[in-house]
Amino acid sequence: MSPEQTPILKVSRLVKRFGGFHALDGLSFHVTPGEILGLVGPNGSGKTTAINVISGLYAPDGGEVTFDGASAGGAASHRLVHRGINRTFQVPKPFLSLTVRQNIQVALAYGGATATPPSIAELLDEYRLKEVADRPAADLNSAQQKMLDLTRALATRPRLLLLDELAAGLNPAELDWIAGRIKALASTGMAIIVVEHLMGFIEQITDRVIVLNAGKEIFEGTLATAVREPQVIEVFLGGEHAH
Amino acid sequence: MPSAASKHLLFILAPLVVVFALLPGVYQNHLLLFNFVIFLILAQGVNIIYGFTGYLPFGYVGFFGAGAYGFAIMVMHLQWPAVLAVLVGGVVAVLLGLLLTPLLRLSGAYFAIANLAASLAVLHFVANPALEGITKGPYGVSLTGTFNPTHAYYAAVVVMGLTVGAVVYLKNSAFGLALQAVREDAVSASMAGVNIVKMRVIAWLASALIAGLAGGIYAWYVSVFYPDNVFSGEFSIFAIVFALFGGVATITGPIVGVIILYGIYNLIGFTTPQYFQLIYGLLIMGLVLFLPAGLVSLATRRGWNVP
Ligand SMILES: Nc1ncnc2c1ncn2[C@@H]1O[C@H](COP(=O)(O)OP(=O)(O)OP(=O)(O)O)[C@@H](O)[C@H]1O
Ligand SMILES: [Mg+2]
Questions:
Q1: pLDDT tens digit sequence for B216-232
Q2: Which of B33, B84, B239, B261 has the fewest CB atoms found within 10 Å of its own CB?
Q3: Cβ distance of B193 and A76 shorter than 8 Å
Q4: In terms of C-beta distances under 8 Å and separation of at least 24 residues, what long-range contacts does A13-21 make, across chains too?
């Protein structure tokens, strides 16, 4: 992280309600180009909701989202994609009856990438989908579907990438591999927000973490510091006991 | 994929158009041939909106009837030549489609029912005696001046060719792929950068245009008709069943569906009409239960690539 850089994404006092329930309750943070920011917190703390608001799936009920210096809150998803935001889904959402290749083709054709996007061959190769390229996405296992979500996002050449539990369910060797890939993406200047429950993984790749609880930020800093914060420990242990 | 598209044009579209252009010379029942062509057009129109976007248009006939009346009004009141009046029929259907775009916010059965209701509303509007001066209301239209079944038939063959050509385009273009993506998962499609509202509206208006042109040509062919004829729910149901039977989101499925089912319909309908409803009903039930992706999926399951 280079603190002198201007943030590409700024979120301030973000509020998202479902009925009377505040899923996000005044969340503020920022991320700069090339930075990998961890977004952690117990189940139901609002991580996915934050990603959904930033990627335009939900309009915020309050607060502001600023991307690349311009307002982005409540804009249509495809517009945000064209402006340079993309994401993966906690439960991957490929186009099941289309082939892997066709899944990526849609994003290449419609993603509105401003710079030259990676080629299909590169994406298939780098994300280990070459063997299944011409199979319907429905035939893939869940880890492969997650990679397909990721390649679809990358085909639009995002400058901000939101990864919602991309690593969950991967084996240790795969975790190392995907950690390497995420770092490589960040080194190209891409800002990346990583939502993850696996603390080892977060430790390995992030520069900084935000700890969320009940839609609010309760800590910001390095993960090493976070795990010594009584409030953070309390929230995580409380969350674990609840299950 | 230009080579696949040219194959589809050469081996599906061209033979279909040639066969239907030549058949009147060797087969005497021209009305039956004309009805085949009309259903080929309508089944492909249903294919575009249902197969590629997932909206089931139970009121599809609304566009057909609007096209027929668009044609009739131009001919009756402005004495326009038939071909131009057919185009107006298409435009009227597109305008109706635009008016109905809010229905696209509904999903599944809600859309189907609202679309059905809309087609009934258009029927009652057109058949309203108060509009007798414009539509002839419930008393029906008689267009003797343009009567020319031969020209109308060939116009239908042309529109059929264009419609199948549109489906070939959808099967082979990024645009068609994006439509299928929207049908599969609208949220993911938007994350692929696809403007889902725009895509749905385009497909909806394209299918409206197709039905409107078909309706205009139908009016030209029959010349005398009542609102109930051109707004008959049978057009919607048949077109949907034929498309589903053959298999939607393919080029050949709706064609196969029309030729087999409409063929059977005419065979049984002529000789033993009393069994027709029964057999047809059983066929549809069996289809929905055992072959939801249509006849062509039998081949796809065997690993054959059916366009
Ligand atoms: N569409 C929705 N409608 C109603 N409530 C919702 C909706 N989406 C999320 N919520 C609620 O908002 C809260 C935050 O959910 P969210 O999915 O953001 O949590 P999360 O931090 O991603 O959790 P997890 O770690 O389990 O994925 C939860 O209580 C959830 O039930
Ligand atoms: Mg989540």
A1: 999 999 999 999 999 99
A2: B84
A3: no
A4: A13/A62, A13/A63, A13/A64, A14/A50, A14/A53, A14/A60, A14/A62, A14/A63, A14/A64, A14/A65, A14/A73, A15/A60, A15/A61, A15/A62, A15/A63, A16/A46, A16/A49, A16/A53, A16/A58, A16/A60, A16/A61, A16/A215, A17/A61
Chain A residues whose CB is inside 8 A of the B196 CB are 78
CB contact under 8 A, A78 and B195: yes
In this structure, the number of other CB atoms found within 10 A of the CB of residue B285 comes to 10
A84: Cβ below 6 Å to ligand 1? no
Closest CA to B250 of B171, B179, B182: B171
| Distance, CA of A9 to CA of B85 (rounded, Å) | 55
Structure-derived torsion over alpha carbons of residues A116, A121, A123, A129, reported in degrees to the nearest 10: 160
B20 pLDDT band (50/70/90 cuts)?
very high
Mean pLDDT computed over every residue of chain A:
93
Question: Is the CB of A63 inside a 6 Å radius of any atom of ligand 1?
Answer: no
What CA–CA distance (Å, rounded) separates A53 from A55?
5
Instruction: Specify the length of chain B in residues.
Output: 307
CA of B9 to the centre of ligand 2 (A): 47
Taking the CA of A47 as reference, the closest ligand is 1
Which residues are placed with Cβ below 5 angstroms of ligand 2, an ion?
A 47-48, 90
Which amino acid is present at B204? W
CA separation for the pair B221, B240 (Å, rounded):
23
A51, A54, A77, A164, best to mutate vs chain B, most B CBs in 10 Å: A77
Gap from CA of A18 to ligand 1 centroid (Å)? 9
Per-residue model confidence (pLDDT) at position B2:
58
* Residue A1 pLDDT: 47
Cβ distance A93 to B187 less than 8 Å, yes or no, reads yes
Residue-level pLDDT at B273: 67
pLDDT of residue B252: 96
pTM of the model: 0.91
Nearest to B157 by CA among B15, B307, B9, B8: B15
How many whole angstroms from A216 Cα to the centroid of ligand 2?
Answer: 15
Distance B9 CA to ligand 1 centre (A): 49
In contact, B97 and B205? CB cutoff 8 Å? yes
- pLDDT reported for residue B270: 66
**Residue of B171, B183, B191, B248 to mutate, testing the A interface (most A Cβ within 10 Å of its Cβ):** B191
